[in-house]
Amino acid sequence: MEGKVIVITSGKGGVGKTTATAAIGAALALEGKQVAVVDMDIGLRNLDVVMGLENRIVFTIVDAVKGKCKVKQAAIKDRRIENLHLIPASQSDNKDVLNPEDMVQFCKELRKEFDFVLLDCPAGIERGFENSVAPADEAVLICTPEISSVRDADRVIGLLHARSITPKLIVNRIVPEMVASGDMLSHEDVVEVLSIELLGLVPMDTQVIISTNTGVPLVLQKDSEAGLAFRRIAMRLNGQINLPIEIPQALKSFWKRVGQKIGIGK
Predict the structure, then answer these.
(1) Which residues are CB-neighbours of 241 under 8 A, at least 6 positions away?
(2) Closest-CA residue to 56 (of 23, 93, 88)
(3) Cα separation of 112 and 232, whole Å?
(4) What's the distance, Cα to Cα, between the start and end of the chain in Å?
(5) Best CA proximity match to 51, nearest among 138, 126, 118, 134
(6) Does any domain span residue 266?
(7) Tens-digit pLDDT profile for the chain (266 aa)?
(8) For the chain, how big is the Rg over CA atoms in Å?
């Protein structure tokens, strides 16, 4: 059985897409799947840093696509998580060095080696987007609860629909206290506007910054709420479609909890 190619995309940059790609890839590998995460951002690679593999790059996706090396030579094996591999982007090539036909052919090779191939799509809707979407079987759309992010995500959904792909939605960086106070869009608001299936909800989590800076996979940090959310998202992608979606909850302050107990707070 051939592997599945999933593009992970967003409308705008800065919504946590690369972190999500790394976390979902690691979580799928922990589920026992052979996983390749592929950095598609030619010239501006970041996935290697997020995964703590920047010092081990010898070959890039451009080398592999152009036949300068074999797929297995370009795929860097993660030392902490069995079955997880990174194919890095090139920093020195132009964004136009690859085309959609290249990627369709390259992903045919990857399907033979891996159960899941996750393509970390560059922000925007130019060549990098076209290259990432062309070979994809499915799409995961990362959106934050901000009006600008939702608007850009809606544009990307239209482009994916034109290619007969219906994406699934992850709402990232939710701050439950801000949602409760009305200062942040709720996930219900986002889903209502975008009208696509919800794959998961990820709370804002300082452990994400620590993970990115140290290269330690987020899903291996036991006290990370975001890591746990990505683990559950990976389980759904792996077929556990009935796994309930947990809604991030606001933490009540100590004095508010005390007030409720003695009947002076709501």
Answers:
(1) none
(2) 88
(3) 26
(4) 55
(5) 118
(6) no
(7) 789 999 999 988 889 999 999 999 999 999 999 999 999 999 888 999 999 999 999 999 999 999 999 999 999 999 999 999 999 999 888 778 999 999 999 999 999 999 999 999 998 778 899 999 999 999 999 999 999 999 999 999 999 999 999 999 999 999 999 999 999 999 999 999 999 999 999 999 999 999 988 888 999 988 899 999 999 999 999 999 889 999 998 876 555 555 555 665 54
(8) 19
Residue 89: give the domain boundaries: 4-261
Contact indicator for 230, 23 with CB cutoff of 8 Å: yes
Tell me whether residue 82 is in a domain. yes
Structurally, the chain folds into a number of domains equal to 1
Q: Report d(CA 127, CA 95) in Å as an integer.
A: 7
CATH number of residue 254's parent domain: 3.40.50.300
Which residue from 201, 194, 181, 216 is spatially nearest to 248, judged by alpha carbons? 201
Q: 56 Cβ partners below 8 Å, 6+ apart?
A: 76
The SS3 assignment for 201 reads strand
DSSP character at residue 30: H
Total count of residues recorded for the chain:
266
Show the tokens assigned to 205: 């989590």
